[in-house]
Amino acid sequence: MKKIVIINGHPNKESFNFALAEAYQKGAEQSNAAISTITIAELNFNPNLAFGYQKRMEMEPDLQAAWQKIKEADHLVWVHPVWWGGLPAITKGFIDRVFLPGLVFRYRENSVWWDKLLKGKTAHIITTLDQPGWYYRLVYGRPSVNQLKKTVLEFCGVKPVRVSYVGIIKTSEKAQREKWLQQVFEMGRKQL
Fold first, then answer.
1. Distances (CA, A) of 177 to 7, 169, 183
2. What pLDDT digit, counting tens, does each position of 125-137 carry?
3. Please, which pLDDT band fits residue 52 given cuts at 50, 70 and 90?
4. Mind listing the pLDDT tens digit for each residue in 21-40?
């Protein structure tokens, strides 16, 4: 049985991102996958890596529980909006606090190389936009995707990492949103 963790990075429970995360979960439940969720906005933690990497901050209990879910999962599903080309601050803070050296990667002594400690996991990024996905890729170079996919997940050994763009959100009608929810439900059902 595939173990999937859905990580919701939107801070507003009334956002369309919450509906997308729920649609994915419902689809995955139909495929008999083992599902767990992390709703970053509900976690009690300091998102600021106060000392950088010079001094270790102890993980709060909510972050310890989230890390346990990530560690046990086979597949990570990230649902988040793109704001100013990047991730919401709370999502970035979550990554800063949980994706730590020694947990998700380990530098090799006297080397520029590192060990990828999340090998064997796969991921899917489902991100909402207020512009077409092709425009975000071609004009802006998809900075949030590059950050999460390449410099976080793949850096730690997660591969492959699928990306699905949902948008244009701000001008979408109810019928279009229902279509997107059905598409994400199917992604969950197929465990993509």
1. 20, 8, 10
2. 999 999 999 999 9
3. confident
4. 999 999 999 998 999 999 99
6: helix, strand or coil: strand
User: What are the sequence ranges of the domains in the chain?
Assistant: 3-189
Half-sphere exposure of 140 (CA within 13 A, CB side): 18
Assigned token pair, 30: 């139909």
Per residue in 136-164, pLDDT tens?
999 999 999 999 999 999 999 999 999 99
Produce one character per residue of 2-14: b if its CB has 16 or more CB atoms within 10 Å, e if not.
eebbbbbbbbeee
At 186 the three-state DSSP class reads helix
Task: Please give the Cα distance from 70 to 98 (Å, whole number).
Answer: 10
Q: Pairing state of beta strands 114-116 and 122-128?
A: unpaired
Q: Which two tokens stand for residue 105?
A: 């990667």
**Structural domain 3-189, CATH architecture:** 3-Layer(aba) Sandwich (3.40)
